[in-house]
From TrEMBL:
This is VWFA domain-containing protein. Residues 1147-1164 have a biased composition (Pro residues). InterPro entries: Ca_channel_alpha-2/delta (IPR051173), Sensor-like_sf (IPR029151). GO terms for cellular component: voltage-gated calcium channel complex. One of its GO terms (molecular function) is voltage-gated calcium channel activity. Keywords: Signal. Residues 1-27 form the signal peptide. It comes from the Eukaryota.
Length: 1192
């Protein structure tokens, strides 16, 4: 004990010295009047100086010192706000009235059968694609007939696509380009002979007839063996990224090669990157690109550049780390194009080691076919494409290399075809030409054989000299496959989805080779390939809009496992410019043991199997379960039903979730009254409806209107592309109101839709009464309800775009995610012309005669929503909480992913930029720094977006927060805050006290965000406590394995089915427009003189016809925006929560209009201003009066 005491006493001077140094640092920190950037530990001395009495513990649920917030109990204030929101939902939206309507309805049991649904979907898909195969085979005969006539009398009329004038073309939304259906046109290669067969002009009428009857056909083309490319309808490729003069080399090149050589090819591409001129090196890159573009996913490719060292593309190695062959998918082509453009380095100081490069190529082939039989090797199409100048030093070295090639050929027991592409420089020696030609001949041949060696049958390849980019050698590059035996099969080949190089949208190519055999010929020859490009939106529409079983979803896969359509992918639409996604299905069905299910799906023609899935992991991936599951157990059964589509390489899969209760559906006896059946096409009934232009939409205030989205039809694509006529609307109304059930369903409507229309019609009177009596009229833009089947009812009655789908909108998805909660979206720019708005939405549950409901168990049948001017919520905050108006105090509302719903910065005149996309990390960075340290409150989440190949970093806030959240002990106390969850909603109420003291100087800390794009500033660092704006990082895919390159990325969930923004178009006619008079100054305005709320006719949204979404640089919330469908109607859906734009936009958004202060009454559009002033007011209705504005 004395020894220990003496030791402690000896340490006392050191402890005193440490205390003095700490006090000195403390004084220095207090004297320095600034906040240290992004270092909360350096803020603690200021915190102690300012005093931190009453600071809650780290969990944020302890006692809070209310003296900093005027003694306010924030939990009580949050309950008051909840009551205000509930009053709005009940009294203005009518959620109680609508729920009572459903409770009165009669239901019948409904049993779903996933296997029958899979068979039905497969049959529908076969019904779309089988006739396409029949048409292609039928057209072979007239093509052969025209070719026979051409042999007797040369007929080669040509019309160059590149020379077509824009004045001769008309833009058609279905194509996404300007076209002419009067004739076809040709892509003509240079140096093409004058007598090349071309059936184009004689074929035009026949092609036009097929296009009229089959709406799924987009382009029709014939590619001759000489390279002449004829396409119908004609167009001039002005919208393409590739010059028209070079289009013949890439347009349908992989489709042509697939058709004439349907067997898989294995190609090793070797690129010489040694000593050569920049011109020759560029030629070598062009040859490599041409070869890569000619391959498809059925082929396997390995590529490397060789000189002193060997350069491999990134992610081109297998699980063992060695180079290997990989499928040539769109993903692989994009990666190889990047490698060839930016990754390959020309090594000027090194000469290519030909022996080492060729040995590496043979090693890759040997590794690929390891374990294969000699018969399999002989029947395989294996090639080495050697691109080089052929630089060689002497004859001995050349002989040695060629003999090595012969030995490697013999070791494989199969001859490998070698195509040599010699880059023709300014001068070449005889050795170089001889070496490249002998290499293409197969090696050293007999001069290298020893006495005991066996003869090897050598398949000579092409020896091509590349002299220029447009020389004859480049034309032979794309015909590399001719060295293999011809395949005399006339079978239709289907491709994976690809991006249309001229128009918009994704297409699937169906093609067939055309063979001709003359009497004096033993083997027929190929004269060309004929094919169709099909809209993917048309081919996969029955799978995309599958809605038969509400506790299931469907997806479409290729026979090789590639995902064609899945709810987690963007919906394929005709005017999207996104790239295709060739991703394996395992990335979207990320469950243990799914590999077993995958093998069965790809190998068996039909079947089903079951997986036991953890619900929590599934719910984080797919919000469908949130809105469909009756209850949320820890585990549930997921049953996969699959059916292969006959005659095509696609498989339909239906995934059903095992339910504890049987589903019910509304009884068939429900028939809507014809008096309440007001369809949204009020433009067709202008004389009866007397519509007006409300904001930017054709509208009627007499009643609400109903709308049927594409998912309510058995043929969704036909509904999207075919224009509705007045007769079609009449037939629709008659069918829906038919009580006898004897009328035919000519519009092909799903039977359950009639009951949904009948039920939602009952809310019409409630809304029309509220419109004239509501004290909130100046804040309400519109009210609506959307059922899970796709039926929409909206007031005021509005003309909607045919592509509008409520089930993809933010307000719908978030309400489905939180049944029983009032969900409020962040502000977004309304496409209907109301400026910035917020949407309040709520779920309607399946009817129950007792009136008792449990959101955790009852099935959601509809979502109701009401659009409010975005300043409404902030004005309510100021009205309910006078604390928000005090100096140095500010209040805000936050939703559960961290985006601001209401903030004083939204209404301040000096704040510029869009109101949408404001995250807490941007508006309140000091608060965000501290909030991130509350582990129980906020989480940073990673999710994979395969549509744009990004990893998205987003935030998730805990909606179960019980007590107010405040500063941590080491937090920033120059800015004090309180955050409380608003019960029954997805909102958080926050109060910030930013009191200036002598210890608190300029607030310079902020969360780093990119001001250029959405890229995270440091993608290699991932810390939960790092404050950063929501952002995204590249998602690296392995070319060889098809898996993600980083193992930790495999654990991230896939982005759920995304939101979509409706396209914009102007009204077809503009009647005199009555508008709402601006509201008088609010009596509850703040002492600071807060302006009155904006009238609903605010011109903040810009000119009619503008896109609904203002461009921002904010991040999306684990959702990808789906592109829009073509405009087939004269007006637009007015309301949606458009998705945040990504780095690679599907289309260029318009520039945002100059936006004046949003709270001040604005001058209406010029088209609304009457020169008669008083006459306009006198002629308008009493409740919708026109403002008296002097015309300029």
């Amino acid at each position: 004990f004395p020894a220990q005491l003496m030791m402690q006493l000896s340490l006392l001077p050191l402890l005193l010295l440490q205390l003095l140094l700490s006090l000195a640092c403390h004084c220095a920190s207090v004297s320095n009047d600034q906040v240290h950037f992004n270092n909360p530990h350096l803020l603690s001395p200021e915190e102690k100086a300012a005093g931190s009495a009453g600071t809650p513990p780290a969990n944020g649920t302890g006692a809070v010192n209310r003296k900093y917030f005027g003694g306010v109990d924030l939990n009580k204030e949050a309950h008051r706000l909840r009551q205000q929101l509930e009053t709005t939902a009940k009294d203005e939206l009518g959620i109680v009235a609508m729920q009572a309507i459903y409770d009165k309805q009669a239901y019948t049991p409904f049993e779903s059968n996933g296997m029958e649904d899979a068979r039905s979907l497969a049959a529908s898909l076969s019904l779309r694609l089988s006739p396409i195969k029949g048409i292609l085979k039928q057209l072979l005969r007239p093509i052969v007939l025209y070719y026979g006539l051409h042999k007797k009398q040369r007929m080669s009329p040509r019309l160059d696509c590149c020379n077509l004038a824009n004045s001769d073309l008309t833009y058609v939304p279905t194509y996404g380009a300007a076209v002419s259906r009067q004739t076809s046109c040709d892509l003509i290669p240079p140096r093409l002979g004058p007598n090349v067969f071309n059936p184009g002009r004689k074929f035009t009428k026949m092609l036009d007839q097929y296009m009229k009857y089959w709406s799924s056909i987009k382009w029709q083309y014939f590619i001759s063996a000489e390279g002449l490319h004829t396409e119908f309808p004609s167009h001039n490729f002005k919208r393409s990224r590739i010059p028209c003069s070079a289009m013949h080399r890439v347009r349908h090149r992989d489709v042509y090669v697939r058709s004439v050589h349907p067997r898989p090819m294995h190609l090793v591409l070797v690129l010489d990157s040694g000593q050569m001129s920049a011109r020759d090196f560029r030629l070598g890159l062009l040859v490599a690109r041409a070869l890569v573009d000619s391959l498809s996913e059925k082929d396997r490719l390995a590529l490397f550049a060789a000189a002193g060292t060997i350069q491999y593309p990134p992610a081109a190695s297998d699980e063992t780390g060695g180079p290997t062959m990989f499928p040539v998918t769109h993903e692989a082509k994009a990666g190889l194009a990047h490698f060839l453009d930016r990754g390959v380095r020309r090594q000027d100081k090194d000469v290519c080691n030909h022996s080492k490069a060729l040995q590496e190529a043979f090693n890759i082939i040997q590794d690929t076919f390891r374990g294969s039989s000699a018969e399999q090797l002989r029947n395989s199409s294996i090639m080495i494409a050697y691109i080089s100048k052929g630089t060689i030093t002497n004859l001995r070295a050349m002989h040695s290399i060629l003999c090595n090639v012969t030995a490697w050929q013999r070791s494989l027991a199969s001859a490998v075809v070698i195509n040599s592409y010699q880059l023709d420089g300014q001068s070449q020696s005889m050795f170089e030409k001889t070496f490249m030609s002998q290499l293409a001949a197969g090696g050293g041949g007999s001069s290298c054989e020893s006495a005991d060696s066996t003869a090897l049958e050598v398949k000579p390849g092409h020896a091509v000299v590349i002299s220029s980019e447009s020389g004859p050698g480049m034309d032979r590059v794309s015909r590399f496959y001719e060295v293999f035996p011809p395949v005399q099969e006339s079978e239709v080949q289907f491709s994976l989805p690809s991006q249309d190089l001229e128009g918009t949208g994704l297409v699937i190519s169906a093609s067939i080779p055309v063979h001709v055999k003359q009497q004096d010929e033993a083997v027929g020859r190929t004269i060309g390939v004929f094919g169709f490009d099909l809209h993917l939106a048309a081919v996969a529409d029955v799978v995309t809009y599958y809605n038969r079983d509400r506790s299931a979803y469907a997806f479409l896969v290729h026979k090789d496992g590639y995902t064609v359509m899945h709810p987690s992918l963007k919906r394929p639409v005709m005017n999207s410019r996104r790239a295709p996604v060739h991703t394996d299905i395992v990335h979207f069905e990320k469950y243990p043991n799914f590999d077993r299910i995958r093998r069965q799906i790809l190998s068996e023609p039909e079947g089903n199997d079951t997986l036991l899935v953890n619900f929590d992991s599934e719910a984080s991936i797919n919000p469908i379960l949130y809105r469909n599951a009756y209850e949320r157990p820890q585990y549930y059964k997921a049953i996969y039903h699959w059916k292969r589509v006959e005659g095509v390489p696609f498989i339909v899969v239906v995934k059903t979730m095992h339910e504890m209760h049987k589903e019910r559906q509304l009884t068939d006896s429900l028939v809507p009254s014809v008096d309440d059946l007001h369809y949204n096409r009020i433009d067709l009934y202008a004389q009866e409806e007397k519509p007006c232009v409300y904001l930017k939409q054709l509208t009627t205030f007499a009643h609400s209107t109903f709308f049927l989205s594409a998912r309510t039809f058995k043929r969704p694509f036909d509904f999207l592309v075919e224009a509705e006529r007045k007769m079609d609307v009449r037939m629709l109304i008659v069918f829906l109101s038919d009580a006898t059930g004897m009328l035919s369903n000519s519009r092909q409507i799903i039977p359950e839709v009639r009951q949904d229309v009948a039920v939602v019609n009952n809310i019409n009177k409630f809304w029309t009464d509220k419109h004239t009596k509501s004290p909130m009229r100046q804040y309400i833009v519109r009210r609506y309800i959307a059922t899970t089947s796709g039926v929409v009812r909206v007031y005021p009655g509005t003309l909607l775009h045919s592509a509008f789908d409520p089930t993809t909108r933010e307000w719908y998805l978030r309400a489905m995610q939180y049944p029983g909660r009032i969900v409020v979206t962040e502000p977004y720019l309304d496409s209907g012309g109301a400026g910035y708005i917020v949407t309040l939405s709520y779920t309607v549950l399946e009817g129950n005669a007792t009136g008792h409901h449990d959101p955790e168990r009852d099935r959601v049948v509809a979502v109701m929503g009401i659009d409010l001017t975005y300043t409404f919520l902030y004005l309510q905050l100021r009205k309910l909480f006078p604390l928000c108006t005090e100096q140095n105090m500010r209040c805000f509302l936050l939703e559960d992913t961290g985006y601001m719903v209401a903030h004083p910065g939204f209404v301040q005149p000096h704040v510029r930029g869009p109101t949408e996309g404001n995250h807490i990390t941007h508006r309140e960075p000091l608060v965000a720094h501290d909030v991130l340290r509350h582990e129980h409150f906020v989480k940073k989440v990673l999710c994979n977006s395969y549509d744009d190949r990004t990893i998205q970093r987003v935030y998730s806030l805990n909606l179960s927060l019980a007590a107010p959240l405040s500063n941590l002990e080491r937090g920033e106390h120059c800015v004090r805050y309180l955050i409380s969850q608003v019960p029954g909603t997805n909102l958080f109420l926050g109060v910030v006290n930013e009191t200036e003291t002598k210890h608190c100087g300029p607030k310079t800390a902020f969360c780093p965000c990119s001001t250029v794009d959405r890229q995270c500033l440091n993608c290699k660092r991932w810390e939960v406590t790092d404050c950063e704006c929501p952002c995204e990082c590249p998602l690296a895919m392995g070319l060889a394995s098809g898996r993600l390159r980083r193992q930790q990325d495999e654990e991230n969930p896939a982005v759920p089915d995304g939101r979509s923004a409706a396209p914009a178009c102007s009204s077809c006619w503009t009647p005199s427009c009555p508008t709402i008079r601006p509201a008088p100054p609010s009596p509850t305005a703040a002492p600071g003189g807060l302006p009155s709320p904006a009238p609903v006719w605010s011109a903040a949204s810009g000119a009619p016809g503008a896109w609904a979404k203002a461009p921002t640089t904010s991040c999306c919330r684990c959702r990808t925006p789906a592109a829009t469908a073509p405009a087939s109607r004269p007006a637009l859906a007015a309301w949606s929560a458009p998705s945040r734009p990504t780095r690679r936009l599907d289309w260029p958004p318009p520039q945002p209009p100059v936006r004046p202060h949003p709270l001040q009454p604005q001058r209406p559009p010029a088209a609304w201003i009457s020169t008669a002033g008083e006459d306009s007011a006198a002629n308008s209705t009493p409740d919708i009066a026109a403002p008296a504005v002097r015309a300029r």
